[in-house]
Amino acid sequence: MKRTTLLLPIAVVLLFLVSSAVYVVDEREQALVLQFGQVKAVKTSPGLAFKIPFIQEVVKYEDRILAIETQDLEVTPLDDRRLVVDAFARWRIVDIVNFRQAVGAAGQRLAENRLEKILTAATREVLGSVTSNSILSADRVVLMNQIRDTAIKEAKTLGVEVIDVRIKRADLPSQNLKATFERMRAEREREAADEIARGNEAAQRVRAQADRTVVETVSEAQKNADITRGEADAQRNAIFAEAFGRDPEFFAFYRSLAAYENALKGSNSTMVMSPNSEFFDYLKSDTLKTSTSE
pTM of the predicted model, to two decimals? Predict the structure, then answer.
């Protein structure tokens, strides 16, 4: 009974010592064994491991890919058009010993603070070397890769690897939105006015060309009409001349009849002339009849 009473505390102490000497590393973790602050062992593979109880301690760190977001950052590109940029990065611990030496007992929290500063400096440097149009266009992918490469070099001293950097948002500062909107509207109005002016100029050219074509067409038609009319008059005069040459008396009679018709038009025509006037020769003479019958 006394032996059992003595063995029980010893078993409890031994069990406590064994449990204190054993630790488990998850597949999502990596661990350091520290002795008086100095690194004595590194455990990067999952499973059981042992340490000296009370003398050595185990510090575990994430072995997964971690994410960090930067605060809203105001950058000034080459065209002095300020932008507010919001970015995030993915990173992981690749050298756990170097990581411990760099951040000490503060661990991941201090590492994230230092990484944010690195990302902020890299973002300012890269985006400050291009225009705002490059930041807001498809060229942003190239710029993000440049920021990542710069951050990778700076983060090596922390024992971490920056895997990727992405710009989530790049907007104008709120106080500049109204002025930018007004400037954009003025620019669009200027472009619209230029287009309207060019349209009016083109319309004027078309109108002038159409007016010129009309004048040329009318002039050509008038010329052709005058030529046709002149030819017809010449042909008519030739016919009259030929008729006059064949029978002057009949031609004179025809001309008198035409004069009668033109003079006596209308229902209320009045003429005052001498009855012996030559105008009435063919109304009172039978010379034509005698000449015709002969």
Answer: 0.54
